[in-house]
Amino acid sequence: MKLSQTLWKGKEARVLGDQLLRAGTAVAANYRAACRARSRAEFIAKLGVVVEEADETVFWCELLEEAGIVPHEDMKEVVGEARELLSIFSAGRKTAKTRTT
After folding, report:
1. Could you give the 3-state DSSP secondary structure of residue 95?
2. Domain annotation covers residue 75
3. What's 39's domain CATH number?
4. Average pLDDT in the 30-38 region?
5. Is position 5 within any domain?
6. What is the Rg, in whole angstroms, of the alpha carbon atoms belonging to the chain?
7. Which of 8, 28, 53, 64 has the largest CB neighbor count within 10 A?
């Protein structure tokens, strides 16, 4: 959220920033929904949505950097954290799918 507030007001930055904000906040909302799942199957499905949104968040971060809108040094920590969360959610989904109980 803080990153999207710092973007300059050009059309490209605004569009990409809006996409980043939507995907990033969707990660949190969908994770919350996953934690309230009524069954294991529902949890796994909802966690799949979390993984998709986290991956999309990484994509928008990379695109902002590649487009030269946000310098690499400013994006390094954000992208690193986004990738780390993506790995955590992906591993959690994989574990949930393979557990037998």
Report:
1. helix
2. yes
3. 1.20.1440.60
4. 96
5. no
6. 15
7. 64
CA distances in angstroms from 83 to 24, 43, 56, 60, 99, listed in the order given: 12, 21, 10, 12, 24
52 occurs within a structural domain:
yes
Q: Which residue has the tokens 């069954």?
A: 39
Print the domain residue range for 78.
10-96
Does residue 1 lie in a domain region? no
* pLDDT tens digit sequence for 50-89: 999 999 999 999 999 999 988 899 889 999 999 999 999 9
Query: Would you state the structure tokens that stand for residue 41, as one six-digit string?
Result: 């199957």
State residue 8's pLDDT score.
67
pTM, to two decimals: 0.87
Q: Pull the structure tokens for residue 3.
A: 């990153």
Q: What is the number of domains present in the chain?
A: 1
Tokens of 4: 């999207």
pLDDT in tens, 18-31: 899 999 999 999 99
Predicted local confidence at residue 12, as pLDDT: 86
The backbone region for 68, taken as left when phi is positive above 0, alpha when psi lies in -120 to 50, beta otherwise, is: left
